[in-house]
Specification:
Blueprint (H helix, E strand, L loop, with lengths): L1 H28 L14 H19 L6 H27 L12 E2 L3 E2 H27 L3 H111 L1
Antiparallel strand pairs: 1-2
Helix pairs in contact: 1-2, 1-5, 2-4, 3-4
């Protein structure tokens, strides 16, 4: 009997968590944001957290322990932080996806938890313990036990189907994403290899043309130098002939 009640509480608070998350994110993002992990309007992490709080609070009440509100706040805030971090890590490792990221929030740890959200969950813990707990107990106690059993079985069946479809879709999505990534990597490898081959061919062609141009330039320079040397030799020859003629003229004058 008590298991059926916990199942119903889990579903109820999961739905309330989905309503809160979707409403808050819709207001912040100014567009519809379905914050549920499953296809249905459920945020199981809220249901899990609240069930844990109810179980602990019932233990406190049964043992007649005196607990101050700040203690409730502290325990629920720390418990929510641990639950949120572990859930985020597990979902990322198992499903390769992240449903929330606090990287842009102050005092965050790996984007999985942050102080502002932890404080908010602590306040929600106070709301559950001091405002929602007793009405929840009273309402479920007023429902016929057989109806509670049937309702819990129906809810378990619906959530199981929803979870199966969700995990199946996420797995197929992950496989499709992996296939797309492999195809992109293959095409990128081929593109890069082709680009590198074209670059090598262009460098070889450029080197060949540069060597060809260098040989032509060197040959032209050698021709110019040869012409300069020939011109200089011719001038020297002319100067030598002029000196010989001048010397002959001097000899002729001297004889006279």
């Amino acid at each position: 009997m008590w298991v059926s009640r916990y199942v119903v509480w889990f579903i109820v608070y999961s739905v309330l968590g989905w309503i809160y998350e979707s409403t808050y994110c819709t207001i912040v993002e100014r567009k519809w944001a379905n914050r549920g992990f499953l296809y249905g309007p459920l945020c199981p992490i809220y249901g899990t957290g609240v069930i844990a709080m109810i179980a602990v609070w019932q233990t406190v009440l049964s043992d007649d322990l005196v607990v101050a509100p700040w203690q409730v706040f502290l325990v629920t805030a720390l418990g929510a932080a641990v639950l949120e971090y572990v859930t985020s890590w597990a979902m990322e490792k198992l499903l390769h996806a992240r449903w929330w990221d606090y990287s842009d929030m102050p005092l965050n740890i790996n984007g999985r938890i942050c102080v502002p959200a932890t404080v908010l969950f602590g306040l929600m813990g106070l709301l559950v313990v001091y405002v929602l707990y007793q009405p929840t107990i009273d309402i479920t106690n007023g429902i016929d036990p057989v109806l509670i059993e049937a309702l819990s079985l129906l809810l378990i069946a619906l959530v199981s189907v929803d979870a199966t479809l969700t995990v199946s879709a996420l797995t197929q999505f992950a496989q499709m994403a992996a296939s797309v990534t492999d195809n992109v990597n293959t095409h990128m490898d081929a593109f890069v290899n082709e680009a590198m081959e074209r670059r090598s061919a262009a460098e070889e062609a450029f080197q060949h043309e540069r060597e060809k141009f260098s040989r032509k330039a060197l040959a032209a320079r050698m021709d110019e130098m040869s012409q300069v040397v020939s011109s200089a030799a011719l001038r020297v020859h002319h100067f030598a002939e002029g000196d010989e003629q001048l010397e002959r003229m001097r000899d002729a004058l001297h004889r006279k």
